[in-house]
Design brief:
Rossmann fold, 6-stranded mixed β-sheet, 10 helices, 44% helix, globular
């Protein structure tokens, strides 16, 4: 009689384990579902994808984990809104399960999505789009505000030039507006411009996108005398920050942005998506480049 309880306990334990596995199995298998690879199209607004290496690595990692394959599409002319709209239509009608887009014009892309006979989920990078399944980007207004605060810590007088390239990069508009508001509230004279003056640049310059920051830093090499505050975490921007050509940058992980964009697209297809939180970002100065938390942003490990 002492031993009769052992088999019963073993059977009950086995039944309990089976019950737990029964509950967990759908969740464990759901990511791959029927084994079919999901087709995700990535629409860029550039003519090549070389500037998206870190984001691409994040996307590929997520695609491998979640059972998806990526198709990368670039434009023949940078920021060609009509061409991007046509690519969206072609990919949706051609069988893409979802699209990840860097919008050349968010409103135009939304209109193109609305015109599709069978719309697919669209996740955006860099800037939000009404009606999208989510956006993998920082709070763009907060980026501009905090970058302006970094400049205010150093400001000693003189005009601040805000370089505006929102026509090509719509996400920069809220960054610029928030920076302008912060500078104006502090009593700092600020002006907009689309390029650095050739003769006498101002003492202070702000840019709001990686490419604009790189160009301004390159322009500074032949025109010393202005402090540059920008956005970006590319190798070129990091090198200029290290050399002192850039005073501070707002930086975030493009790898994380790419990973989250793919995950959001897959979850939207499986009806399990929820709003994405804004990407965290940091204000990095040259002397802080090698802080452990900043190395992860500026020197990501690549395979």
């Amino acid at each position: 009689m002492k031993k009769t309880g052992l088999p019963a306990i073993a059977v009950l334990s086995l039944l309990g384990l089976l019950a737990v596995l029964t509950l967990l199995a759908p969740q464990l298998l759901r990511e791959r579902e029927d084994g079919r690879l999901l087709a995700l199209s990535v629409l860029l607004r550039d003519t090549d994808s070389s500037g998206w290496n870190a984001a691409r690595q994040g996307m590929e990692q997520a695609a491998d984990e979640l059972g998806a394959e990526l198709r990368w599409l670039t434009l023949t002319v940078p920021n060609d809104t009509r061409e991007q709209e046509e690519l969206l239509r072609r990919e949706a009608e051609g069988g893409a399960d979802a699209v990840i887009a860097v919008p050349a014009d968010p409103e135009a892309l939304r209109s193109a999505l609305d015109r599709l006979a069978a719309p697919c989920p669209v996740v955006t990078l860099e800037c939000a789009m009404e009606g999208s399944a989510g956006t993998a980007a920082p709070d763009n207004g907060e980026v501009g505000r905090r970058l302006a605060e970094a400049l205010l810590e150093d400001w000693s007088g003189g005009d601040v030039l805000l370089l505006d390239n929102s026509g090509d990069c719509p996400e920069t508009a809220p960054r610029l507006e928030a920076a302008l508001e912060a500078l104006t509230a502090a009593g700092v004279p600020a002006v907009r411009g689309t390029a650095l003056p050739e003769d006498a640049p101002p003492a202070w310059v702000m840019t709001f996108e990686d490419g604009a920051t790189r160009r301004a830093a390159a322009g500074k090499e032949g025109a010393e005398g202005f402090a540059l505050y920008g956005v970006g975490a590319s190798t070129a921007v990091t090198a200029q920050l290290e050399r002192g050509a850039i005073a501070a940058v707002a930086a975030w992980s493009d790898y994380a942005a790419g990973y989250l964009a793919v995950r959001q697209a897959v979850q939207a297809l499986r009806e399990r998506s929820r709003p994405l939180d804004p990407l965290p970002f940091s204000i990095v100065r040259g002397e802080d480049i090698y802080a452990p938390e900043n190395q992860k942003l500026l020197f990501p490990v690549t395979s």
